[in-house]
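debug: dumping io for the single-chain case to check the tokenizer round-trip. Nothing else runs in this session.
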Amino acid sequence: MNELQQKRPLNDKLQPIHIPWKFNKFNLGREQGLKIIAHLNPARALGLEEGDVHVIRNAGGRASDALRSVIISQQLLGTREIVIVHHTNCGMLTFTEDVIRDKIRTELHQNADHIAFLPFGDLEQSVRDDIRILKDSPLVLDVPITGYVYEVETGKIVQIGENQ
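debug: decoded output
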């Protein structure tokens, strides 16, 4: 067992802290919109030390999109706990598969029907769904998997139970 594995589980370290950024300057869903979470240092925001966490990021924080990286992290880096963090005001709440596909078809004259963009309409349910995807995968080790919603407006992090 290495030093990191001997430490408390990551969930014991998560601390709600306020990030004093002005998120209201972002306007998701419009041309000047930015993915807010990209401006966040996840380790620092969650009260973790550098090296305590291997961060895997993607649009919407979707587990199915991150599965390849999770497997590599577990098999090659020794990751033994998974924490899923989605955030409020996520751009993935602002569209559907049909909307993005139509936009691509209209603006790029391409067919993207083979791509799952994975938008969602319920933030907390998306966290529960992602926990379930990883727990059900035979390629993911049986390790603690928990989920949270980071509230960009307040800086709080709220745990989301699997069966809420």
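debug: round-trip ok. The mean pLDDT is 77.
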